Amino acid sequence: MSDVFLEIVVQAAEAAAAGIDSRDEIEEPLEAALSATGVGEVTGGGGGSGVYIVDVEIGTEEQFDEALALIRGALQDMKVPPSTVIKRHKPKELTLPVYV
Fold first, then answer.
1. How many domains does the chain have?
2. Which residues have a Cβ under 8 Å from the Cβ of 32 and sit 6 or more positions away?
3. DSSP sequence for 44-70
4. pLDDT at 9 over 80
5. What residue numbers bound the domain in which 81 lies?
6. What CATH number corresponds to the domain at position 28?
7. pLDDT surpasses 80 at 1
8. How confident is the model over 15-55, as pLDDT tens digits?
9. Are strands 51-58 and 40-48 parallel, antiparallel or unpaired?
10. Of 8, 30, 52, 85, which has the fewest Cβ atoms less than 10 A away?
11. Which of 72, 100, 74 has its CA nearest to residue 86?
């Protein structure tokens, strides 16, 4: 893998209201979608302070746009809350919405 890392940040209370009761319910389908295409993988995550965080590593910089579209599609299929964001810290700080 490369050094393209993303964090998916989901508000836990809003996720619960949408029927998503744990971070695993986000990680598992996202990992399945990423591994099916080979553009990335879920590498971990965490929680606390009212959020679920899912860490994703993208294969290469050239796959970023494809991976972002795939991640957005998978998250939308799961009906994550609209406040969910995808954060990238390098090479510059980006906060991207799931719903565009």
1. 1
2. none
3. EEEEETTEEEEEEEES-GGGHHHHHHH
4. yes
5. 4-97
6. 3.30.70.260
7. no
8. 999 999 999 999 999 999 999 999 999 999 999 999 999 99
9. antiparallel
10. 85
11. 72
